[in-house]
Structure formats: structure tokens, C-alpha cells
Amino acid sequence: MTESYLGIVILGAVGILNAALIIGLSQLVGSVRPSAVKSSPYESGMPPLGGTRERFSVNFYIVAMLFIVFDIETIFLLPWAVVFRDLPLEGFLAMVIFLDVLGVGLVYAWKKGALEWD
Q1: Where are the domains of the chain?
Q2: Over the chain, what is the mean pLDDT?
């Protein structure tokens, strides 16, 4: 039984040794020349605004959560679309109800102002 796992163990050992070797070589060969420019945060070429401990607006998190929810719900459409022609009427109606609930949730979030970016 242990012979069947020998390949996995060898592969894991080679991976760990490879990672350790690369990290060790980068520490030995790489040069370290710290400067103020290298230590400053890089934000797409823009100068940093504010400190790193600045608080974000709650709307940022709400929009992010809504994006994740609607993105995951949209993925549920893919398996349905693949078997759409083979589904009976009940499968179509279930997806219509699902999309209606999703649409009502989007309209509710929109009306509550969750999508406003102030």
C-alpha cells in the first residue's frame, strides 16, 4: 500500500527542496539596497493617498459582497444552459423563478442605494 504513495511523496519532497533551494539562492545571490523609493507603496503609478491604516467606506464592502453574490449566482446559469434543451418545462420554470428572485434582489439593493458610490 505504501508503494502506491511513493511517487506522491517523492514529488512533494522535490517540490519542497526546489522551493527551499530557490529561496536560499535568492538570499545568497540577490543584492539588498534599501531606499526610500523601494520602501514606498506602489499604487498603479499614483502617489499614495493617506496611511495604510485608513478605513474604507462600508459601501465598498457592500458592493464587493453584492458582486460576489451575483457572480456566484450567475455561475449557476452555466450548467443549466448546457442541459437546457434536455430539461422539461419544470427545469425552465425553476430557472425563471431563480432569475426572478435574483432580479428582485438586485432591484432591492439598487433601491436601497447599495450600488451608490459616494
Answers
A1: 2-31, 58-111
A2: 86
